[in-house]
Design brief:
The chain is an alpha+beta fold and about 170 residues long. About 15% of the residues lie in helices and about 40% in strands. The protein contains 2 helices and 8 strands, in the order H-H-E-E-E-E-E-E-E-E. It has a 5-stranded antiparallel beta sheet with strand order 1-2-7-5-6, with no helix packed on it.
């Protein structure tokens, strides 16, 4: 007696379509997600009052630039740029960002470093720095600052770099 595989009856192969309910739950979740996304975009798009701004930069004057260098015990070299910063505007300055351009004599673009300006807090027994927000600069006041750089390219021409104020935070 030979056995042949049994085929399912035709009724079982083609069953009636299953009725699906409307996707109201999915639409509601998508709607809520869209509302949250729009709220996040609106909040991020608003300008924060403490965000750096170029509008106040003309009131900031940087002067008396001096450079020094030091070699660490591990052989690394640090370059220091010291100077004075003056606030000639009507607001109290709580943060300053600068770009420093280290030029070269090889017709190549300069090395550009963007850093926050750090104020000198003490000089004895060593120079200690702090953020401007820790000791805000009142209108008409002047402070000493220090910028520290660890990785200046070897093609730098060793001349004083250009320093440009790129953002100022005020209150």
């Amino acid at each position: 007696m030979s056995t042949t595989p049994s085929n399912p009856p035709p009724a079982e192969m083609f069953s009636a379509p299953v009725e699906r309910s409307s996707p109201t739950g999915v639409i509601a979740i998508a709607g809520i997600a869209l509302v949250i996304l729009v709220a996040i975009v609106v909040m991020l798009g608003r300008r924060h009052p403490d965000a750096p701004s170029m509008a106040y930069a003309p009131h900031i004057v940087i002067s008396d630039i001096q450079m020094s260098a030091a070699t660490s015990l591990s052989g690394g070299e640090s370059t220091y740029i010291d100077g004075h910063i003056a606030n000639h505007g009507p607001a109290t300055v709580i943060g300053v960002n600068v770009q420093v351009f280290f030029k070269n004599d090889e017709a190549m673009p300069p090395q550009v470093e963007s850093v926050p300006l750090m104020l000198i807090r003490t000089r004895t027994p060593y120079v200690d720095t702090q953020q401007v927000s820790v000791a805000p600069i009142e209108p008409g006041a002047e402070r000493e600052f220090r910028l520290t750089f660890e990785n200046i390219g070897s093609n730098w021409n060793q001349n004083l770099p250009e320093i440009h104020v790129t953002g100022v935070q005020t209150r």
